[in-house]
Amino acid sequence: MKPKVMQICLSDGWGGLEMYPARIIPELARQGWEAHGLALEGSRVASSLVDAGIDPLTVGSRGQALWRVRRILAYLKAHGIEVLHCHKSSDLRLGALLVSLRPQLRLFFTDHMGVTRPKRDPFHRWSYGKVHRLFSISEATRRRNLNAFPLPAERIRRLYLGIDPAPYVDDLDAGEKSALRAELGIPEGRWPLGCRGVSRGARGRRCGSKPWAGWPRWLPTRPGKGC
After folding, report:
1. The predicted structure's pLDDT at residue 226
2. 113: number of Cβ within 10 Å
3. Which of 37, 82, 84, 173 is 20 to 30 A from 209 via CA?
4. Apex CA 68: angle with CA 67 and CA 74, to 5°?
5. Residue ranges of domains in the chain, CATH in brackets
6. Ranges for the Glycosyltransferase subfamily 4-like N-terminal domain (predicted)?
7. What was the pLDDT predicted at 203?
8. Is there a contact between 164 and 180 (Cβ–Cβ < 8 Å)?
9. At what angle do helices 92-101 and 122-129 cross, to 10 degrees?
């Protein structure tokens, strides 16, 4: 029988964090897991889970999820789900409550954002104490989490988000590359660099793009690759 996991994301927003639960479902399936989901009714998260091929359990609000915890436990039991995966710290209240009521459940949490202040008060000691593994999406995030969370180091692991590179494979022929360079105004022999994502200050992408200007001083001139 396949192992089963419930992805929990009770967010009414729609950003990279909210997109991730549905994005990992194909890889989970490839590795032999059966994925389930818990989301807010009418949310983009819920619709993305449907698009990924699963029919999520939905609730009207985070508060409703807490007082309908027996319904969620019944769903977990009916489907033989023993692994929970949260993506927002606010969802750990529910995840920790589920584990408290059914200790055989294993709770995993992916910290997508990183923390800067300690989370060692009684509430966080209780909620994070129920986490079997905390995944940090980078080594820098992991170092911050080691200082912030009330967990032993062996329960805080680095796990890069990762992407499927197949859609980004270079499949342009020489003529198409030259045409694309001309369209973008990129001279032959120069390296184009791109940064995909939201260009807001908090994202760090503007700051991260500044070192590119220094590349001509650091690297010798060499033939361009790609397009």
Report:
1. 41
2. 13
3. 173
4. 140
5. 4-158 (3.40.50.2000)
6. 14-165
7. 54
8. no
9. 60
Residue 91 or residue 164, greater confidence:
91
Count the helix, strand and coil residues of the chain and give each as a percent rounded to the nearest 5.
45, 15, 40
Distance CA 10, CA 65 (A): 9
Instruction: Please list, in sequence order, all residues whose beta carbon lies within 8 angstroms of the beta carbon of residue 106, skipping any fewer than 6 positions away.
Output: 82, 83, 84, 99, 132
Q: What is the pLDDT of residue 171?
A: 83
Task: Write down the mean pLDDT value for the chain.
Answer: 87
CB 32 within 8 A of CB 55: no
CA distance between the termini of the chain? 46
Query: Which tens digit of pLDDT belongs to each residue from 83-118?
Result: 999 999 999 999 999 999 999 999 999 998 778 889
Is the separation of the CB atoms in 21 and 49 below 8 Å? yes
